Amino acid sequence: MKTGYLALLLLAPLTYQAAAAPPGKLGPAAAPDAEKELFAARYDQAAELYSKLLRDDPAWAPGYYGLVRALIGAYRAHEAYAAADEGLQRAPAFAEAQAAAGLAAYRRGDLPRAEAYFRKARQIDPNYAYALSGLASVACATSKFKTCEDLMAQAYRASPDDPQLIVQWADALHGAAQISALERALAIYDPASRETRRLRVRIAVDKAAGDRKLQRLASPYQSYDIELVPIGVDLRRPWGVGLRVRLNDTRTVRLILDTGSSGISISAKAAEKAGLEILSNQRYEVHGIGDKKPQEAVVYLAAAVDIGELRLADFPVGAFTAAKSDAYDGLIGADVFELFQVSIDFPNMRLQLAPWPDGQPAADVAVDASETLPAGFWRAYRFGHTLTIPVSINQGSEQPFVIDSGGWDNLIDTGTAQKSTKVRRDYNSGLRGVQGRVNQVSRASKVSLAFAGFRQDNSDLLAFSLESLGDQVGVGVAGILGMPVLRQMKMTIDYRNGAVRFERTVRR
Prior knowledge:
With about 500 residues, the protein is α+β, with helices and mostly antiparallel strands. The chain contains 16 helices and 25 strands. About 35% of the residues lie in helices and about 30% in strands. The strands form four sheets. The chain has a six-stranded mixed beta barrel. A six-stranded antiparallel sheet has the order 2-12-11-24-25-13, with no helix packed on it.
């Protein structure tokens, strides 16, 4: 499975498509037209067609799956939730309605409920492609990569003309076979769709890379202990931590260590000064916090990346303007080190990388995470590069929070906060991210966060809508755990088993 930088930039979140309509009173032309729009990633048009078909026949189960998928693809998640509920009321005995409910639950961030709906759909129809792909999405989020890969292959065989399933299946292929599969999917998408833009970049990068193995460990597979550096405009009161990274043996940059990011990102000017090779002129969009339009970026290739004594070879590097700020030269995600068990000791400013006891940095085939976690570890969920942990808010049910060492504050989704505390507008606080300033910021008066055996009480916690972040990740996110929590901790990330450990520690 691709779990690193290229997966973040070039793959859409795991998504779903509607099954073809059965023949019946709707007529032979109407349902295929809706499916064609959905497969082309023209989501608003697909939603309109599915809505019309369901008005004509409210008991037509495939229509609910198609409608829910289209609405989520169109970033209209709340309409999708209502459509999924209606599908359960109108056609609960059909796999399509159960899978639609699973898709809605997944988008809400409720993985246990999503899995239950997908399993019910599979019980009704063991070969239903979108029950299989739904279960694959849950398996991927819980680091069961072998199970995920097998289910994706089954889903593809059940619906081989679905471009999204083609892309997911192609992830297990290599070389020319993978490129051929991706090009077949590309031919189905609308040329103006975001899916087309992503695939064009991925295909171009794969072709330019040729036989080179990207993101290759070029130093011994052993333990590393690397110094972290303070990040902040005023280094007497730093708000983040970073790493000194040398590119192509020519240029050293200071990158913020950002567990909410992925891979390495710098400005195009810095990439050119370091002599990086441009892999593709195809541009992709960079999404993050902020209300401005996403920035465009291109992919370069660093022949060598040195971080302390660790060396990586042929490493893709994203380049876009907002990667650089006054406080740092770019971003480096913790997943750059996912071949190791990664410990970030924030109080003592150390990054510690430990090899796996079996001496294998990465398996040639996908493997499932262990069912039993080591002592002190808690299950984390991965959505692409985004690492989340279940958090209880004000003693309520657990919801996913992003673990983000690049965040200078803890944050909560406004709608989530309003369910358990008072929220008021804050006209004075300035909040900025990759996509610029957040226009509407609020304050949640009392928020108690419980996670991984710890509790943090917050008064006047920053709140804003995380709906856009949920659209990009593909899963609803209730909040962000930033440096106010993390700077007190030594955090260990087990990427192999999808787990994290937090240990309160003090500066030595």
